[in-house]
Amino acid sequence: MRLMTKHNRQTLRSQAAQDNIVQAALTVFALKGYAAASMEDVCLAAGCSKGGLYHHFRTKRTLLGSVVRRLASAGALLPPFGAGGETTPLPRASLGRLLVDVWAEAARDVELRELLRAGYEAQLSVHAEASVDAVADILRVGALIQLLTRTDGVDADEAARRLGLEQAA
Questions:
Q1: DSSP string covering 109-150, please?
Q2: pLDDT digits 0-9 by tens, 67-93
Q3: Torsion angle, CA of 10/14/17/21, rounded to 10 degrees?
Q4: Residue 8 has what pLDDT?
Q5: pTM, full prediction
Q6: Half-sphere exposure of 54 (CA within 13 A, CB side)
Q7: Residue 82 zone, left/alpha/beta (φ > 0; ψ -120 to 50; rest)
């Protein structure tokens, strides 16, 4: 049995801290909305210091990118949400509202759009033999994304209603 080195332990602790922060951000962004959430809110939810948060994520935008990666790995970018290996602890309506915020931000951020594109391509390969209902859901999401990326002002509540999601708390 190989002994764990100090470097390996530090790497594991750092990864655990990042995972905790991303999970807290996912919850905070879903509850408050991305624009209204602050890094302080994420610190409180994660139980970490501001220094710890900024050590791992220099900006709120980089943190959002990690949230998108988490959603992609969980198969939570397209209906049926959670078709991937992981799950998110969010109710479907909260997840939908978070995705509306992510799409709105992606309309202004090329890197975030690329992250979403890669996540969607990966998830669509899972849906290669999807049912008609799943394909209809995917088309509704695509139409909503086009709507959000073609307007200057985004009404997240209206977009969520068009997607058929109940309003998040």
A1: -HHHHHHHHHHHHHHHHHTTT--HHHHHHHHHHHHHHHHHHT
A2: 999 998 888 887 666 544 456 678 877
A3: 170
A4: 86
A5: 0.72
A6: 6
A7: left
